[in-house]
Amino acid sequence: MLVAAGIAVTLILVLGGGGAQATAEKVVAAINDKDAKAAAELECGDNSDGSMLAVPPELENAQIDASLESDAEENGDTATATISVKVSMQGQELELKGPMTFKNEGGDWCASNFEPEQPNM
Predict the structure, then answer these.
(1) Do residues 114 and 84 touch, judged by C-beta distance below 8 A?
(2) Euclidean distance between the first and final Cα of the chain, in Å?
(3) What count of other Cβ atoms lies within 10 Å of the Cβ of residue 107?
(4) CA-CA distance, 76 to 86, in Å (whole number)?
(5) Which 3 state secondary structure label does DSSP give 116?
(6) Where does the secretion signal sit in this chain (predicted)?
């Protein structure tokens, strides 16, 4: 469960630039690449230090497979897309899936929140 909590916090990340859909795709790429630097450059507001995407050391060797389960649906300056993140490590699997909320801040989209459902193990 500690790993699941760490991943959930890790995924409250963001990337901006382009529309909400493009940002959602960049989020998935950053998760798959474990690329905290890319996220740090594009996170929303007060979260711009990259801490939301930092992969906990215990997951550095894990296989991570993130994907978009739905396209980002824009509604004014907010949007939502369903993201799935599967983590495999030492014969165990965990899936976090749920809505990620995006915001348009000054013309740039960024991810602001991730609310995964109860993890599937």
Answers:
(1) no
(2) 10
(3) 8
(4) 30
(5) coil
(6) 1-22
For residue range 67-96, what is the model confidence (pLDDT) as tens digits?
Answer: 999 999 999 999 999 999 999 999 999 998
* Strand bridging mode 92-105 / 108-114: antiparallel
7-65 pLDDT tens trace: 444 444 433 346 999 999 998 998 888 887 777 666 787 665 555 556 677 877 899 99
Cβ neighbours of residue 66 closer than 8 Å, sequence gap 6 or more: 27, 28, 31, 32, 83, 84, 85, 86
Closest by CA to 11, choosing from 83, 69, 94, 117, is 83
Q: How far is CA 53 from CA 10, 71, 73, 75, 116, in A?
A: 4, 21, 23, 25, 15
**Domains of the chain and CATH, by start:** 2-114 (3.10.450.50)
Both structure tokens of 34: 């474990």
Which residues in 6-105 belong to E strands, given as ranges?
Answer: 63-68, 73-75, 78-89, 92-105
